[in-house]
């Protein structure tokens, strides 16, 4: 029985060559766009780059006196993002475990659709809902209860404001749940079925199988989902502008209003009247981009380290 070998003509080779060039151009465009972001933001902030670390560590933003500091905004961005992760990540991983391991077949598709549909809701809609529905409920019922029982902690002391760090963080948690849960679900579904069968063969229950086999082997994907959720929360603009209070203060109380890098850029850029103020706002955008890129880099390094240590353990 002779094997037939297909002969590729010149036209097929030409198509393959152009397809390779096209995919290379598309992949290179990501690097080019990222480089352009840094170049444009660096050139736009050249007037305030000479401020050095005083721009990062300063706590005063006064365009009249030409004094600019981002410490309150960096603090507010970190705090609201941390609140979003503390609330949103456990819920997201729970949703991912339910959809990948525990959900009945007839419910899996509808629930997945509803979760993914939340990602399509515009951020301004989240902001309006938080401002009109969630904020009054929290201010009148939830926050007084937290202050009554947890008031011994600095986080829950002080005056309760209508817009605050905690309100913005709660809405951010709702906004990152669709993305984090979707990525986490895909990571858990990618765990080989043999890992589940091995856990059952050793006598594990379903919950033990999920903990020992699925969550353990899906950890790199879960870490990536958490860092992507942090990047989404850290850079969110419209919902935070409406809910954080836009007050340049550093306070330990979650009930206090504050500001973030994204909200500062959104509120100050249009009103910037001098070249120095415009440069300061653009540099705030540069800091925001650097933090987002650093977060992705740290996430990749952690995932690589975990995979390397896991491979080393397998061969020992």
Short recap of the structure:
This protein is mainly alpha-helical. The chain has helices spanning 10-44, 53-57, 71-102, 105-118, 123-150, 165-189, 193-201, 206-217, 219-235, 238-243, 261-268, 275-315.
Summary keywords:
single chain; 316 residues; mainly alpha; MetI-like fold; 2 domains; 12 helices; 73% helix; globular
Task: Provide a descriptive summary of the structure in words.
The chain contains 12 helices and no strands. The protein is mainly α. The protein folds into 2 domains: about 5-35; about 70-265 and about 295-315, MetI-like fold (Orthogonal Bundle). It is globular. The protein starts with 9 loop residues before the first helix and ends with a helix.
């Amino acid at each position: 029985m002779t094997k037939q070998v297909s002969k590729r003509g010149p036209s097929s080779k030409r198509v393959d060559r152009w397809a390779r060039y096209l995919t290379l151009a598309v992949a290179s465009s990501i690097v080019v766009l990222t480089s352009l972001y840094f170049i444009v933001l660096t050139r736009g902030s050249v007037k305030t780059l000479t401020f050095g670390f005083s721009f990062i560590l300063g706590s005063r933003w006064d365009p009249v006196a030409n004094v600019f500091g981002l410490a309150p905004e960096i603090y507010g961005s970190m705090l609201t993002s941390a609140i979003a992760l503390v609330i949103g990540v456990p819920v997201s991983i729970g949703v991912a475990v339910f959809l990948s391991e525990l959900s009945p077949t007839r419910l899996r598709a509808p629930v997945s659709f509803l979760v993914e549909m939340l990602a399509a809701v515009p951020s301004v809609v989240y902001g309006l809902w938080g401002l009109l529905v969630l904020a009054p409920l929290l201010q009148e019922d939830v926050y007084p209860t937290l202050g009554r029982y947890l008031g011994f902690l600095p986080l829950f002391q002080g005056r309760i404001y209508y817009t605050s760090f905690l309100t913005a963080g709660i809405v951010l948690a709702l906004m990152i749940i669709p993305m984090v849960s979707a990525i986490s679900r895909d990571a858990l579904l990618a765990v080989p079925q043999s890992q589940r069968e091995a856990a059952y063969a050793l006598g594990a229950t379903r919950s033990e199988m999920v903990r020992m086999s699925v969550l353990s082997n899906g950890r790199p994907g879960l870490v990536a989902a958490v860092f992507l959720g942090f990047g989404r929360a850290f850079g969110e603009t419209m919902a935070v502008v409406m809910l954080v209070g836009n007050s340049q203060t550093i306070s330990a109380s979650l009930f206090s209003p504050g500001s973030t890098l994204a909200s500062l850029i959104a509120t100050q850029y249009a009103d910037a009247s001098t070249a120095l103020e415009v440069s300061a706002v653009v540099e705030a955008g540069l800091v925001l981009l650097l933090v987002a890129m650093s977060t992705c880099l740290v996430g990749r390094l952690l995932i690589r380290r975990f995979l390397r240590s896991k491979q080393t353990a397998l061969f020992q």
